Q: What sequence folds into this?
């Protein structure tokens, strides 16, 4: 993947992130293998977007500036580097899918620590794209994007998501149902 291709994907997805996830809180409601209901809340802020891309910034940039540049289509090849391990390329291949996590996630579970270089606590997603989550101040925040089958990354069996709700951060109640299992 070239840097120009990466920029095209990042800028397109920054607009989707801004429209659908930024400053939003999502509630995943799911059942475990014993059919008990649970929920996980996730907040999405502007600085979280950088983690989704896997790129490394030049020293002068921070996560919010990177996001603003991408959102305004001002991202430049000099602003970042693609690492040699192809992590960024794998993340960018599924980034567009992750922008719809509020409607596409079907499973959720605790991370099983199966990867040496991944620190995350919980994973939500599908058999082709996942979002890693860590808990901070009693709420989860996204910290990684993975081009993986969720079933290989979480403790068995996965929690089956049966509803996803969304609201703006700070609103008292969830006002929008984005997914409901029929």
A:
């Amino acid at each position: 993947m070239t840097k120009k291709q990466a920029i095209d994907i990042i800028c397109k997805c920054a607009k989707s992130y801004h429209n659908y996830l930024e400053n939003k809180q999502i509630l995943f409601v799911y059942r475990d293998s014993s059919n008990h209901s649970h929920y996980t809340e996730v907040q999405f802020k502007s600085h979280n977007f950088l983690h989704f891309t896997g790129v490394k910034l030049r020293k002068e940039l921070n996560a919010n500036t990177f996001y603003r540049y991408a959102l305004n289509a001002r991202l430049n090849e000099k602003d970042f580097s693609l690492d040699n391990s192809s992590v960024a390329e794998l993340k960018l291949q599924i980034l567009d899918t992750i922008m719809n996590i509020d409607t596409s996630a079907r499973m959720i579970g605790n991370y099983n620590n199966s990867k040496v270089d991944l620190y995350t606590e919980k994973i939500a997603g599908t058999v082709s794209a996942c979002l890693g989550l860590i808990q901070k101040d009693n709420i989860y925040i996204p910290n990684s994007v993975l081009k993986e089958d969720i079933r290989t990354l979480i403790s068995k069996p996965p929690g089956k998501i049966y509803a996803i709700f969304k609201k703006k951060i700070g609103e008292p109640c969830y006002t929008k149902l984005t997914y409901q299992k029929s």
User: Anything to note?
Assistant: The mean pLDDT is 93. The CA atoms of residues 6 and 92 lie 7 Å apart. The two ends are 39 Å apart (CA to CA). Helices lie at 3-20, 49-53, 63-71, 87-98, 101-104.
